[in-house]
Amino acid sequence: NVLEAPYQYFKRLNPQACEKSRWSANNTDEVIKFPIEVPDGAKTKNQLPATEMLAIVKDTQKNWVNSGKNKSLCTQDFLSHNVSNTVTVKPDEWGNVTKYIYDNRKYFAGISLIPQSGDKDYPQAPFTTVYTSREIVKEYGDAALWCSGLIELGLNAFENNLWAACDYVSMNQAKENDTQEKLLFVTKMKNFAGKYFNGDVKRLTYCMKDVYNWKIYCDLFDSYQKVDYTQLLETEDNTAGIEEVSCAGGACLI
């Protein structure tokens, strides 16, 4: 929430890491981007089978949440907290994921599933995978080195929102009365895709987003300022328990 003192303090030190949320229903939220390096030996979401991740969620729900529940304090015995989770699913895993969830449904209170391409399909996706320049060129070829001009065109035409720019082209949203900048972007995208991506506009948008994410990651990594919250002094308390939002988008209240 943009009104929260800890966030305002962070933003004063790291404005480059903050941006308006694309998902805030009330336009009261912003998001923070953190560049994270994976430690040696760690297993990333793309290396972890979806059913293995679901098994971790199940075990946590079964052995921590359910085992630690004090039924005498529950308004209803069947009510349960949920293990917050986002499970990345590869294209060939959906059948196994469906079966696993159904077979173990009594252990799940809620599950979030996102396709492997989700961090390129949705803006501001959690735990976005960032590929290095070498990995990007290996995946898309040398054309990845030449698409920065397209990225700049898209950002300029769509108020710095590359995801909206790419959707505009891949979902055929163009209209005759659109701005010249938007129409030029469509033409350039289709020509570039035809020349270097066998006409696959969707794959071109993924390439552009990977390049953009790598640039953002490098910028954040180089410019991040350490935040010492012991120096933060809150002069007012905006907390009101009765108004605490309990559902995404401010749809329901406690």
Number of helices: 9
Side-by-side strand order of the widest sheet: 1-2
Proportion of residues in helical segments: 40-55%
The shape is globular
- What structural class is derived from the secondary structure elements? mainly alpha
Mean pLDDT: 89
Main sheet properties? 2 strands, antiparallel
Distance between the termini: 17 Å
Helix/strand order, N-terminal first: HEEHEHEHHHHHH
Residue share in β-strands: under 5%
Assembly state: single chain
Number of domains: 3
Structural Rg = 22 Å
Report low-confidence residues grouped into runs of 5 or more.
none
* Total DSSP E strands: 4
Question: What does this protein structure show overall?
Answer:
The chain is mainly alpha-helical. The protein folds into three domains: 1-35 and 225-254, no CATH class; 50-115, no CATH class; 132-223, no CATH class. 42% of the residues lie in helices and 5% in strands. The chain contains nine helices and four strands. A two-stranded antiparallel sheet has the order 1-2. Strands 3-4 form a two-stranded parallel sheet. Strand 3 (87-89), helix 3 and strand 4 form a beta-alpha-beta unit. Helix 6 packs antiparallel against helix 8 and helix 7 (162-170) packs antiparallel against helix 9 (201-223). It is globular and about 65 Å long. The two termini are 17 Å apart. The model has no long low-confidence stretch (mean pLDDT 89).
